[in-house]
Amino acid sequence: MTIFTRHIHALSVALGACLAGLGGAAAQDTHTLRFNHVLGPNEPFHQGFEQWAERVAERTNGGLTIEVFHSAQLGVEEDMIEQIRQGANFGQNTDAARLGNYVPGIAIVNGPYFVESNEQAFALADSPTMQQWQQELADQHGLKVVCFDWVQGFRNFYTNKEVRTPADLAGLRIRTPPAPIWQESIRALGAEPTAMNFGDVYPGLQQQAIDGAELVYPNITAANLNEVLTHANETKHIMLVNFQVVSSQWFDGLPAEFQTALVEECRTAGQETSKVVAEATEAARQTLRDGGMTIVEDVDLDAFRAAGEKAYETLGLTEAKNQVQSEMAGQQ
């Protein structure tokens, strides 16, 4: 080998090493989030999550990909949250009730009549106390809240009898998720809470394991629950604010620009989807009425609001509730 060919060979080796290094760096800069939610593919939230994924992929030039899985395809919500805490590249649509298992105060967002409009829900992001709780979730429990601008609307009691006052719920077993604030809220409002996964509600009603459920209107139409329920009682007892969570360890490993894209596009898609949900709620309500479901509108909301305070008292969350509501009032 001549001196010239040796130089060419050396340059080729060096160039190959550089290209290999670039390929390795590119591979390291590609990230995937497998995002799970319990709702069906026809729910507005599913389309919203797909839109979030598209925008993040576009903004990061494919560097961050979100794969959306509906109907709890990746697993039960509580199990998913535990895997997320261990650092897995999963995301989960969840609520303050479940997050309250780790940071009790944040559960107030899921309490009776805590917020009563989309605007109030979006304003929660500016609450110093809410920001403190989110930091605690990330630092001490491995759960990074990406955003919580996803409002699923008012939850009502859906039963096979008319409900106008808390007394009308006496003795009724109402399906609720398995979290303290949810259980105590339904108990305070007059019913017997029964923990059950969302996917089990239809057969649970068929088999009379439960007497009703508290959900939002689009849940009823999407899951055909009007086939096993006759009354929609408009108690509007919880405006359900959804939280999108990922592993804080996984999030911290993302490039800064990917973190920003994930959060900002989450907020934008969430607020847009919340408006779609509000429209879908009215459409679902009309569909159910047209299909023969009885819509009970003249509910004694004052009586339900007063009854709901007991949930905060029982869990020692009255002070936390008052604090955050005071911060929100100061922003107006």
Automatic annotation (TrEMBL):
Q: Which PROSITE patterns match?
A: PROKAR_LIPOPROTEIN
Transcription regulation among keywords: no
Q: Which UniProt keywords apply?
A: Receptor, Signal
Q: Name one GO biological process term.
A: transmembrane transport
Q: Which Gene3D superfamilies match?
A: Bacterial extracellular solute-binding protein, family 7
Q: Does the keyword Transferase apply?
A: no
Q: What are the annotated GO cellular component locations?
A: outer membrane-bounded periplasmic space
Signal peptide (from-to):
1-27
Q: What protein name does the entry list?
A: Tripartite ATP-independent transporter DctP family solute receptor
Q: What is the lineage of its organism?
A: Bacteria, Pseudomonadati, Pseudomonadota, Alphaproteobacteria, Hyphomicrobiales
